[in-house]
Write a structure and sequence with these properties.
The protein is mainly alpha-helical and 167 residues long. The chain has six helices and two strands; from the N terminus they run H-E-E-H-H-H-H-H. Helix 2 packs antiparallel against helix 3.
Length: 167
Amino acid sequence: MGNEIIVFGPLLLLCAAAEGIGGVRLLGGWISPPFLLSLAAYCALTRRTWIVAVEIALTGIVQDSLSFTPLGFSVAMFGLMGAVLERTRGLLYADHLITQVALGGVLGAVFGCSGALAYIARGAMPSFSAAIRVIIGMFIAAAVTTPVTFWIGAHLDRMVGSHAGAR
């Protein structure tokens, strides 16, 4: 248990720094690489249930601090995502690269869609095409960042002797 928490701290700092440094120009706009979304997915697939809840809540708070979304939005979205992934982790082969890319893409599209809907509800999204670009951009960015986050997380887990939680 302690090893999983020891690994989470540096991972959270690393992902927050990577996401907070700046965005990537993609599809005519700037997309911040969703490393914190990938970290939440990694935690949901590799940790015990109570640890998942704590780590995802902390990850969501950091995400909300770094983004323009309303406070609590990422905590709620990461919590829903974590609950679904934690319940279905037996069906997923999370160590496989193709699974990580596909999972990251789907999660990025869902998170991008929910974010676009939140911006549309507040009147901050200029057009429907901008919302589509956000969704596609998040799909691509999360598909790239998720395998990287999973690799770093698994490497750190092995370094401290953790067996990646409940897997």
